[in-house]
Amino acid sequence: MMNERKRNSLQVMVLIQLVLFLQFKSTESASTIALPGCQDSCGGIPIPYPFGIGPNCSLSKDFNVTCDPTYSNGTPTPYLHGYFPILNISLSLGQARVGGLVFSQCYNTTTKKEDHTSWRWNFGQRLWYNTEKNKFTIIGCNTLAYLQLDLRDHSTVGCLSSCDSLEILSKYGSCSGIGCCQTAIPKETSGVTVWFHERNNHSEVYNFSRCSYAMVVEEAAFMFQTSYITTNKLSALVATNVAQLPLYESQSLPVLVNWVIENTACDIARTKKSSYACRSNHSICLAVDDRGYICNCSEGFEGNPYLDGGCQDIDECANRNPCSTPAKCHNLEGGYRCSCPFGSRSNHNNPTECDLNIALPIGIAAGIVAVLFLGIVIYVLLERRNLSKVNEKYFQQHGGWILLEKIKLNQGFGFTIFTKQQVEQATNNFDSSNILGQGNKESNLEETEILLGDRSHNDIEIVDTGYYFNIDKEAEESIAIGR
Predict the structure, then answer these.
(1) What are the helix and strand counts (H, E) for the chain?
(2) What are the residue boundaries of the EGF-like domain, all occurrences included (predicted)?
């Protein structure tokens, strides 16, 4: 009984150790995105390194992220630089999508003046607005707003929107100048200041358009609505001061921000081993315009190239079978291979597809023909060999070389060819009385060379020489007899 308890306890311990080992291996194989010991997400949004939450978790202060656990009905929300709600971060593109800032100018019916918000924000040297996908956008009637790019030289871009009545707004309202205006942002815009021209006010249109709005927004994510003018939809997105920035809902108006690791070219960065950010063995350095570089995983790998071992092999066969039927997919480190079944071959233009291997059936057919031809040749050669043996046999039986010598010796003499039937007729069907030397012994053989046959031995004898050869009764043989 005691031994059984010990055995059960030992089995339980072994099972526990096995479970812990499998959990460890699973954790070890999982791809990590943040530095060890650092929080890797906030509110379900992944925060990959070089961004980081908390002290010593980001590459630099430009990538600092704060996680507010109380924002948006208790759901934690990550903020870039403490102010911009993070919607997502792309390591491969070097981009972050964040909630944009909305500035406003509203007509105050009491003071008969415009109340507006205006202040400047600068992302720094490593982050800047994506000038290809973002647009400077203003919404409102009789509105002129400016986007100042640099406080030192006062470089600005502006946009004008007008609409004299609600009917015109409802009928023609669009981001082409009626109710809304959009314009491009100059390259390398890291910081902006937005303000409204004071001469344009809403005193004449405040009954349907009391406020105007200006923002930098991702063009593809923005769709103009006349309700933005006629209602207070955008009012909740306006921050009247920096302290209020984390308190407004801005995820509906995103803006794309580009970033680089360092303002250094790849060839120079690689020489600085201590600061070179592409840490994974399967990572590459990518130049971003003239701003610096980012890191990507090599082709066939995925993960975080900024961490040691961060890039893991992609199992293309398991995730998405790239091989077309009937090809079979084989995963390789950093890639895959498609193999084709018997009777087909890989398409030269598209290795993921298989084509009918026409050369194979042709080759098989040619091989069969070759084998048949060889067999026929061998058969003919064997038959010729057998025929030669038969000819040699009959040649020897019918006189052979002796007959040939006889013919040579008797050159100039004629020879008559007798068939079997002629011999039978001449010998009275091989009558024994016609056997030479058995009957009329006075026959003069030298003068006539009479041909007699022995029916029992199938022999014909040339008396004057004593030579003889056999005749096969079953064949239509011919024989030459000299006379």
Answers:
(1) 9, 31
(2) 313-350
Q: E strands within 335-406?
A: 335-339, 344-346, 354-356
Note whether 462 and 403 are within 8 A (CB). no
Question: Are residues 254 and 97 in contact, defined by beta-carbon separation less than 8 angstroms?
Answer: yes
| 226 and 105 housed in the same domain | yes
Q: In 163-244, where do the E strands start and end?
A: 180-183, 191-196, 211-218
Say if CB 116 and CB 104 are below 8 A apart.
yes
- Residue 220 lies inside a defined structural domain of this protein: yes
- In the structure encoding, which two tokens stand for residue 20, read together? 């812990």
Residue (of 12, 169, 33) closest to 91 by Cα position: 33
Query: Do 211 and 141 contact (CB within 8 A), yes or no?
Result: no
CA-based end-to-end distance of the chain:
124
Phi, psi values for residue 477, rounded to 5°: -85, 160
Range of the domain at 447: 398-482
For residues 121 and 80, the answer to whether their CB atoms sit within 8 Å is: no
- Bridge partner list, 122: 191
147, β-bridge pairs: 157, 194
Q: Containing H/E element for 383? A: helix 359-397
* Residues 140 and 215 occupy one common structural domain: yes
Tokens 């100042």, located at residue: 148
Q: What domain count does the chain have?
A: 4
Query: Is 334 buried (19+), middle (13-18) or exposed (0-12) by CB count in 10 A?
Result: middle
Q: Which pLDDT score, from 0 to 100, does residue 345 have?
A: 74
Statement to judge: residues 309 and 322 lie in one domain: no
8 A C-beta contact, residue 423 and residue 479: yes
Contact 52, 34 (CB under 8 A): yes
State the amino acid at position 172 in one-letter form. Y
Q: pLDDT for 404-446, tens place per residue?
A: 676 666 665 555 656 777 777 877 787 777 666 555 444 443 4
The pair of three-digit structure tokens given for residue 158, joined into one six-digit string: 């502006």
* 333-363 tens-digit pLDDT: 888 888 888 777 777 778 777 877 666 667 7
